[in-house]
Write a structure and sequence with these properties.
It is built from ten helices and no strands. It folds into two domains: 1-52, Arc Repressor Mutant, subunit A, CATH 1.10.10.60; 55-185, Tetracycline Repressor, domain 2. Helix 8 (141-160) runs antiparallel to helix 10 (170-185). The chain has helices at 6-27, 34-41, 48-51, 55-79, 84-97, 99-111, 113-134, 141-160, 162-165, 170-185.
């Protein structure tokens, strides 16, 4: 039976989560192991398994953490009635700050059923959040899903510099993303 106080347990899990986020972002999923996560958090390697089932489990928790960070930034900008272009900048910056993590997420979403399910659940939550913001004028969930995928892909492309790699102006992608955001903010 666990005898440690709850706040100690959650502090340990949180330190492991932050360490995992840093490791995944520096080394990708394939280049990260649970021992390195534990050591980076300041714990013995076996401590990891007291809090997380395996590397996939902590990866999904990091993804949920990433999603929460993004939602917090976007909610703050929406509360300030920030221009659509500022929201685009924030989205691209958040994706850019987690480049290797996002690459691993895209790959694992194709290869691992638990990650694929976690990503689907995240997108469903994002759709619900958008509908809540839109209120009575909310766009259909299926249409929002397609829009969300466009936003996600454009944010990743901007973060990765894919448009510039084609010797094209990335501002066109940023403008397109701003148009999508504007349409979501002002449905109908």
């Amino acid at each position: 039976m666990e005898t440690r106080p709850k706040q100690v347990r959650s502090a340990t899990a949180e330190k492991l989560l932050y360490a995992a986020a840093a490791e995944f972002n520096e080394h990708g999923f394939a280049g990260t192991d649970t021992n390195r996560i534990a050591r980076r958090a300041g714990f013995a390697p076996q401590t990891f398994y007291r809090w997380y089932e395996d590397k996939i489990d902590v990866f999904i928790k990091v993804y949920e953490y990433w999603e929460g960070q993004e939602a917090e930034v976007l909610q703050g900008l929406l509360a300030q009635n920030a221009p659509d272009e500022r929201i685009v900048e924030a989205m691209a910056a958040h994706h850019r700050a987690y480049l290797l993590f996002r690459r691993s997420l895209r790959q694992l979403s194709l290869e691992h059923p638990k990650v694929r399910a976690a990503r689907a659940a995240s997108r469903v939550r994002q759709i619900a959040n958008i509908q809540a913001i839109q209120g009575a004028r909310a766009i259909d969930r299926s249409r929002l899903a397609a829009t969300l995928l466009q936003m996600e892909r454009l944010s990743d492309a901007l973060a990765e510099g894919e448009i510039a790699d084609m010797n094209l102006d990335p501002q066109a992608a940023a403008d397109t993303l701003a148009e999508i955001i504007h349409a979501l903010r002002h449905p109908g």
